[in-house]
Records
---
Amino acid sequence: MIHEFKTYRAAPGKIEALIKRFAQTTMPIFARLGIEVVHCWTSAAEPDAFFYMVRFASPQAGKDAWAAFGSDAEWKAAKAASETDGPMLASQSTVYLQPTAFSPQSS
């Protein structure tokens, strides 16, 4: 099992819209494409950031799922419609995590 910890940094003034789009649009598309969201977070210490974790059976499954998401017609249309006044995302990063042998949930 491979986990990806994602950090999205919103463009100025766009964090609420970014989170709303993620909840209402991105999550259902992820579900349809088999991208399993483990959890989502915000942080008072980083008010313009949104964090979430996904997991995949293998690195290749993750690559395939992200490729499908990037080319998904529904996602492309929703992204374009939500960004008529500019991009919501200023930056993003991904950390690929693998459980240790002693992790309570190592599989």
---
Amino acid sequence: MLDAEANTGVTLTESYAMTPTAAVSGLYFAHPDAKYFGLGKVERDQVADYAVRKGMDLAIMERWLAPNLNYEPTTTGGAAAA
């Protein structure tokens, strides 16, 4: 409807990241008492459980969460397992 790709030159990757990387879009909410915090990396059992709950393939879930993993993915596909 907006023909955003043609009008802006911004596209989405298969994991829905915007390219070029300089393109930024978001909703930002602020509060004077708000504080930022890190959550740390996630382990294999957490990703497997999440994949089962979402009904998604473990390999796809690992690809989406790759920057947040605390392990090297070894899955090559197949059904999500807990």
---
Amino acid sequence: MRRITILGSTGSIGVQALDVVRAHPDLFEVVGLSAGSDRQGVAAQAAEFGVEHTALGADESVQLVRDVRADVVLNGITGSVGLAPTLAALDSGASLALANKESLIVGGDLVKGRAAPGQIVPVDSEHSAIAQALRSGSDREVRRLVLTASGGPFRGRTRDSLADVTPREALAHPTWDMGLVVTTNSSTLVNKGLEVIEAHLLFDVDYDHIDVTVHPQSIVHSMVEFVDGSTIAQASPPDMRLPISLGLAWPDRVEGVGVPLDWTRASTWTFEPLDEQAFPAVRLAKQVGRAGGTHPAVFNAANEQAVLAFHAGRVRYLDILDVVEAVVDRHTAGENSLEGVLDAERWARAEADALLAR
């Protein structure tokens, strides 16, 4: 029986995690729940699962993690506000099931320095797939990581054709149901750029050996290529409960958590090269990742501001990446500490807002 604390329990990841717990009460006990602001939602969850300890907001989530001893902390908070709870979870000694990719990306070496070997278990479907595939060989046998991308709603379109994209069109993701910022990031491929940085930090693979391929069916969630030419892929229907269950039970699998592929039916899987001219986010993310320090925090914060401005009707779709790149180019790396990261984020948001206002 594993004692679980779920941060972001009323969001998509949290709700699906509770689905897993509900189906397997013999494996998991929820001992802590936190939400951003949904007091009624978290109260209803606490009543159902008999949870005594709840919290609202990032600060209370940090205290929750410190006060409640859990075997696993699932961080499903959205955005870089999840950094402090991530650090608290690592300091607690619990296994960190990490769905809040932003905290690792903006925290970088700060997060890695707090983590014991194997303490962070990725919940993003792509990184969970890589973690599963890596069990097929040793670190020295890995040649490259290949992350798959659905391509979003604008797959196959040229850069010029994206000039008049509307917020509604940007939110029409063909596969996943996510929040406003994450769904928009999937359309610009900023989300995939962030995942490239995350893969580098999680698996210590150089950026030159991390590739992205477009796979519209979203069945193969990522792949690992080994030095002998073999490629191991993890394939399953798109359902986040599978990587969530692995995050909670790692390294064990949870029986019946997902529906397997039906091999008795004909199907076609396709893979396409990434068009970096139309979607430059992955190239920019690799540049940011190589720069290191507080650059990824600036990249993430500037993008969040630009996405919100786009949805407010203040800028056009192509302005999002243009503003992000301009802010990144102006940044000078800051101190590698929690306060240094927060300072860099504040600077990036202010700089992005100033550019967006023009």
